[in-house]
Every structure is written in structure tokens, then in C-alpha cells.
């Protein structure tokens, strides 16, 4: 395949790039924002797609964020590419804040103490149990292991993540829609000015900008 690396990246290299991109998080954020505002969809479609990706990032179902973002974007008539780019809000720098806030808010909504200790002490054993059950195609053991992590951890995060995801997604929708309207208007003005120059040159007349500079 064209531009493929001669030596495939190993697990350590992939993990390092996931935690800290080669372009740094600032440059990566700028790249994602430019990609979003260069999409050809309507401002609503672009904003709805971004909001769907943000909402999906607030759910604890890591590994299914893209699928969930596409589903929500489809229901909101959003842009699928914008939905994929919107999941960028969930990254190693923001996940600790997202997970802590969704867990605490979920426990509060469930009537539990919001300051309860996160059961991370048994999390490693539970995840190992889940991986082993999947490796051996033992879905009964997988269901038992998933239930062990669902009630103490995933359930509060899911309950808290839905309202927080909707709220933050709505904020991103408003901001993205306004910015998309602005960038589309700027793009249209540039295209119109370029078309006027081409029309003036083909007619053998100087463009309006050239006439203004000569005056």
C-alpha cells in the first residue's frame, strides 16, 4: 500500500502515539478543527456530527465510541465524518476527567454517595477475567465478569455520562454551528471574489480589486 511504513509500528509505539501524538495535542486539535470546518455539509449536519461524537465520548463503552457516534449522528441527520472527528474530545488527557465526573454524577443520580471509592482494586482481575473468557469463547464467564464490573463501575458511569454527554454535546453543537456558519460565509465570499476576478479577466476588463488598487 502506498505510504505504508516499512516496519509496522509495535504495540509500544502505537500506545505512545495514542497517549502523545507525533504532532502534539495542540497541533492535533488544530488539525481536527480545520478538518471539521472544511467539511461540505450544512452547519447543522457538521455541528450535529460533532455533538454526536462528543456525546459518545462521555459513555464508558470504550471501543464502541465510533459506532455510537455514527448511530447518534444518523438519528440527528449529522455528518458521519464530523461524528468521527468529534470523538477526539475523548483522549488520554480528558478521559480521567470524563470518567471521574461521570462516575461521581452517576452515583449521585443512583442515590449513592458521590464520594464513594472507585473499585479499581479489583478492576485488573475483572478485566483479566473478561479477556480470558473472550479468548476461550466462554460467553457465560464473560457475562459473569461483565456483571461484576457493570454494577460497581460501568453502570454509574453510563448513568452519569448520558446527561453530561448531552449537556456538553449541546454546548459543542452551538459553538460548532456558529463557527461553521462563519467559515462557510468566509469561504463563499472568497469563492465569489475569485469568480469575479476570473469573469473580469475573461471579459478583458480589470478586476474590481485591481481597479481599486490603481485608483
Describe the structure.
There is one protein chain. With 215 residues, this protein is an all-alpha fold. It has one domain (11-116, 157-214). Helix content is 72%, strand content 0%. The chain has nine helices and no strands. It has helices at residues 11-19, 24-37, 43-57, 65-75, 80-86, 95-109, 123-135, 139-202, 208-214. Helix 3 packs parallel to helix 5 (80-86) and helix 7 crosses helix 8. 22% of the residues are buried.
Question: Quick summary of this structure?
Answer:
The chain is mainly alpha-helical and 215 residues long. It is built from nine helices and no strands. It is elongated and about 80 Å long.
Structural class: mainly alpha
Mean pLDDT rating:
76
Order of helices and strands: HHHHHHHHH
Radius of gyration: 24 Å
How many DSSP E strands? Answer: 0
Helix content: over 70%
Amino acid at each position: 500500500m502506498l505510504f505504508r511504513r516499512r516496519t509496522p509500528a509495535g504495540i509500544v509505539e502505537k500506545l505512545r502515539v495514542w497517549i502523545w501524538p507525533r504532532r502534539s495535542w495542540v497541533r492535533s486539535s488544530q488539525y481536527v478543527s480545520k478538518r471539521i470546518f472544511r467539511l461540505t455539509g450544512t452547519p447543522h449536519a457538521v455541528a450535529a456530527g460533532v455533538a454526536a461524537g462528543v456525546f459518545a465520548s462521555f459513555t464508558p463503552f470504550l471501543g464502541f465510541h465510533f459506532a455510537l457516534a455514527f448511530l447518534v449522528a444518523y438519528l440527528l441527520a449529522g455528518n458521519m465524518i464530523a461524528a468521527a472527528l468529534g470523538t477526539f474530545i475523548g483522549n488520554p488527557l480528558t478521559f480521567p476527567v470524563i470518567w471521574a465526573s461521570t462516575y461521581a454524577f452517576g452515583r449521585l443520580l443512583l442515590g449513592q454517595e458521590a464520594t464513594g471509592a472507585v473499585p479499581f482494586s479489583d478492576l485488573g482481575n475483572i478485566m483479566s477475567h473478561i479477556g480470558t473468557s473472550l479468548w476461550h469463547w466462554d460467553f457465560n464467564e464473560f457475562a459473569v465478569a461483565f456483571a461484576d464490573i457493570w454494577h460497581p463501575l460501568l453502570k454509574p458511569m453510563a448513568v452519569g455520562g448520558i446527561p453530561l454527554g448531552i449537556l456538553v454535546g449541546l454546548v459543542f453543537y452551538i459553538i460548532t454551528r456558529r463557527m461553521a456558519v462563519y467559515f462557510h460565509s468566509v469561504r463563499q465570499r472568497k469563492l465569489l471574489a475569485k469568480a469575479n476576478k476570473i469573469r473580469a479577466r475573461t471579459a478583458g476588463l480589470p478586476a474590481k480589486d485591481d481597479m481599486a488598487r490603481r485608483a
